[in-house]
UniProtKB/TrEMBL annotation, chain A:
Transferase is among the record's keywords: yes
InterPro entries: Anti-sigma-factor_SerPK, HATPase_C_sf, HATPase_dom
Organism: Pelagimonas varians
Keywords of this entry: Kinase, Serine/threonine-protein kinase, Transferase
GO molecular function, one term: protein serine/threonine kinase activity
SUPFAM superfamilies assigned to the protein according to its UniProt record, in alphabetical order: ATPase domain of HSP90 chaperone/DNA topoisomerase II/histidine kinase (SSF55874)
The organism's taxonomic lineage, starting at the top: Bacteria, Pseudomonadati, Pseudomonadota, Alphaproteobacteria, Rhodobacterales
Residues annotated as domain Histidine kinase/HSP90-like ATPase: 19-144
Annotated protein name in UniProt: Serine-protein kinase RsbW
Entry keyword annotation includes Kinase: yes
UniProtKB/TrEMBL annotation, chain B:
Family: Belongs to the anti-sigma-factor antagonist family.
Domain STAS: 21-110
PROSITE patterns per record: STAS
Pfam families reported for this sequence: STAS
Designated name of the protein: Anti-sigma factor antagonist
GO MF annotations, alphabetized: anti-sigma factor antagonist activity
Length: 154, 111
């Protein structure tokens, strides 16, 4: 589900999805084509999709604990230089009511001990300018802002 | 998700025929790699030039695959597209893997 706000030089897209990795994938794939339809061409190599994916995966995996029927609301506002994203879910609160610190994984270990996860929050923190988490009643609200690179028109 | 496998002496190039390695596919990716690596020896180059998106679950599945490689085998990577390359650099996983520009340059190195 996507709605274009029609605001000059900017695009707002809204999605509602249920909490499975397949729905995350399908939403991101739709998002790419919705952006193209709105004439917004983001530079190859831009990391916006990774940040959105990591937050959504975290909601699926941790807030909803891999239960497939949790609702996730995603609002994205793309302007010339920034993506502003809002994520709302009704899953479990963040541990200790705060965002994970997202420390870099320790790679100074032998091969068999290398981490296979725990990269997500470090990537989200590194790529975001602003990241605010709030528990409101039974909902988690996450707001983030990150720079994006739009291809010049024409 | 499919793999295309090209074997040449002790070098095996495994091309991932998928645009995304993400949380939806990470487990089946790891299982497919496990099949490829059973009793493998020599160099296996995972060619990622068709993959234009990887998330941390996908990255984790490549690390998991590397750990499954038998002792006389080695897993290397080739053909990282810009976003995939950034994920490896940001997580410093580029320091763990041998990474080639392309499968061709990986093959040239063994010649």
């Amino acid at each position: 589900m996507a709605i274009n706000s029609g605001e000059q030089g900017a695009t707002t897209l809204r999605y509602v999805l249920f909490s499975t990795p397949e729905n995350v994938r399908n939403t991101l794939t739709s998002l790419r084509s919705d952006l193209n339809e709105n004439g917004l061409h983001i530079c190859p190599g831009d990391m916006w999709e990774l940040v959105v994916a990591e937050v959504l995966n975290n909601i699926v995996e941790h807030a909803y604990g891999d239960s497939p029927d949790g609702e996730i609301k995603l609002n994205l506002h793309f302007s010339d230089l920034h993506l502003t994203a809002k994520f709302i879910d009704s899953g479990a609160a963040m541990p200790d009511g705060a965002l994970p610190a997202g420390n870099p994984a320790n790679l100074d270990v032998e091969t068999q001990l290398l981490p296979e996860g725990g990269f997500g929050w470090n990537l989200i923190h590194s790529l975001s300018d602003r990241l605010v988490y709030e528990r409101r009643g039974t909902e988690n609200h996450l707001d983030l802002e990150m720079p994006i690179q739009i291809l010049p028109k024409g | 998700m499919e793999f295309t496998i090209q074997e040449d002496g002790n070098l095996s190039v495994v091309t991932v025929d998928a645009e995304r390695i993400d949380a939806a596919i990470a487990i089946s990716f790891k299982d497919k790699m496990r099949e490829q690596m059973a009793n493998f020896s020599g160099r296996m180059v995972l060619d990622l030039h068709k993959v234009d998106f990887i998330d941390s679950s996908g990255l984790g599945s490549i690390v998991a695959a590397m750990k499954l490689m038998p002792a006389d085998g080695k897993l290397e990577l080739a053909g990282l597209t810009p976003t995939v390359d950034k994920v490896f650099r940001m997580t410093r996983m580029d320091s763990i893997f041998t990474i080639h520009d392309s499968a061709q340059s990986a093959q040239a190195q063994s010649a």
